[in-house]
From TrEMBL:
This is Thymidylate kinase. Residues 7-160 form the Thymidylate kinase-like domain. GO terms for cellular component: cytosol. CDD domains: TMPK. Belongs to the thymidylate kinase family. Keywords: ATP-binding, Kinase, Nucleotide-binding, Transferase. InterPro entries: P-loop_NTPase, Thymidylate_kin-like_dom. GO terms for biological process: dTDP biosynthetic process; dTTP biosynthetic process; dUDP biosynthetic process. Pfam families: Thymidylate_kin (PF02223). Gene3D superfamilies: P-loop containing nucleotide triphosphate hydrolases. GO terms for molecular function: ATP binding; dTMP kinase activity.
Length: 213
């Protein structure tokens, strides 16, 4: 079974770009790879409802931190068969967001730290009850909130994609970054590595390739 790696970070951190570059280098090195993005917008009814709620639909759904977290968790739960198939057929699978994203954003919304009830609930819900596979390695792409916001707004202009309620909330983004840092420090649920904004994709690819040996 292949190695499962989750890449985490704020909206606009540059995760998508980093994943693409790392996959290119891994493929050149002969490593069989696959990737999956969460939430699975356009593929999962739970992800789509959550997205719609963050844009003002579905009444007060977005006001409930636990309800929104449950929608994202159910999206991932529905992907378990696909995820396990990808792991069976490849040496390494990289996820753009995973369970830690739910823990970080939710805990930030309720103003708890990484040792609080919310993070514990997410771990128990997604890993223990819904049966999501634990990642072998979690990477946190740590970038300044101001840089992430600039990138997110540039993407809004270039792609015509309206920022959702989480992306527009600067305070939430700051707290979420702090939560991610705490989860990485605590090595929550599996080993973590913190990456800087100027990280070399070749170095990341080489380090990940070592996990497959």
């Amino acid at each position: 079974m292949g190695i499962l790696v989750a890449l985490e970070g704020l909206d606009g951190a540059g995760k998508r770009t980093l994943v693409a570059k790392v996959l290119t280098h891994l493929a050149a090195a002969g490593v069989r790879t696959a990737t999956l993005d969460f939430p699975r917008y356009g593929r999962s009814v739970h992800a789509d409802i959550a997205s719609e709620a963050l844009r003002g639909e579905h009444g007060d759904l977005a006001d409930s931190v636990h309800a929104m977290a449950l929608m994202f968790a159910l999206d991932r739960s529905g992907a378990v068969p696909e995820l396990r198939e990808l792991m069976d057929r490849n040496d390494l699978v990289i996820l753009d967001r995973y369970v830690a994203s739910n823990a970080a954003y939710g805990a930030a919304r309720v103003h708890q730290d990484a040792s609080g009830e919310f993070v514990r609930w997410i771990g128990e819900l997604e890993f223990d009850r819904l049966g999501l596979p634990l990642p072998d390695r979690q990477l946190y792409l740590e970038v300044p909130v101001t840089l992430a916001e600039l990138r997110a707004r540039a993407r809004e202009t270039q792609e015509g994609r309206v920022l959702d309620a989480y992306e527009r909330d600067s305070g939430l983004q700051v707290r979420t970054g702090e939560l991610y840092a705490e989860l990485a420090r605590d090595q929550w649920r599996s080993p973590w590595t913190v990456l800087t904004p100027d990280v070399d994709p070749v170095t990341v690819a080489k380090n990940l390739a070592l996990l497959t040996r």
